[in-house]
Specification:
By secondary structure, the chain is mainly β. The protein is built from one helix and eleven strands. Helices cover 5% and strands 47% of the residues. Strands 2, 4, 5, 6, 9, 10 and 11 form a seven-stranded mixed sheet that branches. Strand 7 and strand 8 form a beta hairpin.
Length: 130
Amino acid sequence: QLQLVESGGGLVQPGGSLRLSCAASGFTFDYYAIGWFRQAPGKEREGVSCISSSGGNTNYADSVKGRFTISRDNAKNTVYLQMNSLRPEDTAVYYCAAKRISFVKRVTGELPAWNEYNYWGQGTQVTVSS
């Protein structure tokens, strides 16, 4: 059974850093693109960053460009989100999600649209506050 488990959230001061992890099991990990999403109280869920199945292609929301870095280790079935220079507005529950990618798109590194991800983890809370 496909499972995604996030970890690494917590309370951090503005300007601080956190690294989130998304550990996957139950599926062929390198057939899937992985995305990070977040949802703040009273707001819609938004895409934060995503990475292609091979790790060769990435994308970031404008609000996190230059501060967040996504990476993956296919040998460990894990995707990471390094978050630096955190701001109070980054406070949210962060989710990782997976989307199976066709062979052709795995070769080209094409990334799914934000609304195509269909397997989700349970989320991890990130709070940025002094």
